[in-house]
UniProtKB/TrEMBL annotation:
Pfam families on file: BPD_transp_1 (PF00528)
PANTHER family reported in the protein's UniProt record: OLIGOPEPTIDE TRANSPORT SYSTEM PERMEASE PROTEIN APPC, PEPTIDE ABC TRANSPORTER PERMEASE PROTEIN
Listed name of the protein: ABC transporter permease
Signal peptide: none
Coiled-coil zones: none
Keywords for the protein's UniProt record, in alphabetical order: Cell membrane, Membrane, Transmembrane, Transmembrane helix, Transport
Naturally occurring in which organism (per UniProt): Novosphingobium album
Membrane topology of this protein: Multi-pass membrane protein
Membrane spanning stretches: 20-41, 80-105, 126-151, 197-220, 240-265
Origin superkingdom: Bacteria
Cellular localization per UniProt: Cell membrane
Lineage: Bacteria, Pseudomonadati, Pseudomonadota, Alphaproteobacteria, Sphingomonadales
């Protein structure tokens, strides 16, 4: 089981290994946040605001005297898990609907395509702002908004892959055997779509990270005392003039996470064959 994984990692170019390392680093930070965070997420630990790095506070303090390192660790947990959950939901829903459209064809395909074209025409930022303004910000709503926003994009890619596969001989043979649509989609088509879908999952993950960070920067994302990386930048914006670590560190965290994901996506694209 482990040997194929090691072979795949060794086959990656240097940029892909760097990207994989960055992504795994932030996933590990997010998963282990309760164990490695020095303080509670909202604990006040310093009388000074925007204090510099020290032996006690490695990244200094924020605008309220809280530990920046702790805030980043907990903020990465919300950013990574929300983005990963929304990306998985978007890819799962988009791919399922796309395979249904390709297998059924006819009016089913036309209706689903027109519905997805309608959804993809809605600006993602405006849709998110309207939904948050109407229903209030919550983790569940942010997850649903991000998944809904990026499902149509995945549908278009998945449908293009599925339409190529549905005309191939092995799918036609499965149909002639009387196999059900679920079997054809799950056993015949999905294994041949997996590599492009993994690349698209990575792209959706990056898009969701940027969407959630943008919403949080506007004050409509994760609400205090909880935080994600975007809200950490917003709440410490007053420290920008002094170059405080409280605003620099979360910005660097967002950059390394998204750049790492992009490097990994670029590295696995050559293997994306159907």
């Amino acid at each position: 089981m482990m040997k194929p994984i090691f072979r795949t990692v060794r086959a990656l170019p240097l940029s892909g290994r760097i990207g994989l390392g960055l992504v795994l680093f932030w996933i590990a930070i997010a998963a282990l946040a309760p164990l490695i965070a020095p303080y509670g997420v909202g604990t006040f630990v310093d009388e000074e605001v925007f204090s510099p790095a020290s032996a006690r506070l490695w990244l200094g303090s924020d605008y309220l005297g809280r530990d920046v390192l702790t805030r980043i660790i907990w903020g990465s947990r919300n950013t990574v898990f929300l983005a990963l959950g929304a990306a998985l939901m978007a890819v799962a829903i988009g791919t399922s609907v796309a395979m249904l459209a390709a297998i059924r064809g006819g009016w089913t395909d036309q209706i689903l395509c027109r519905a997805m074209d309608t959804l993809i025409s809605i600006p993602s930022k405006i849709f998110a702002l309207v939904m948050v303004a109407a229903f209030g910000s919550s983790m569940t709503l942010l997850l649903a908004i991000a998944a809904f926003t990026y499902t149509p994009g995945n549908f278009r890619i998945s449908r293009a892959l599925a339409m190529n596969l549905v005309a191939l001989d092995f799918v036609q043979v499965a149909r002639a055997r009387g196999e059900r649509s679920f079997h054809i989609a799950l056993r015949e088509m999905l294994p041949n779509m997996i590599h492009p879908l993994l690349a698209d999952l990575g792209l959706r993950f990056v898009f969701v990270v940027l969407l959630l960070s943008g919403l949080s920067f506007l004050g409509l994302g994760v609400q205090p005392p909880h935080a994600d990386l975007g809200s950490l930048v917003r709440e410490n914006i007053s420290g920008l003039s002094s170059g405080a670590l409280a605003i620099v560190a979360p910005a660097v965290a967002i950059a390394t996470l998204t750049v790492g994901a992009n490097l990994l996506i670029d590295a696995i694209k050559p293997g994306a064959k159907t």
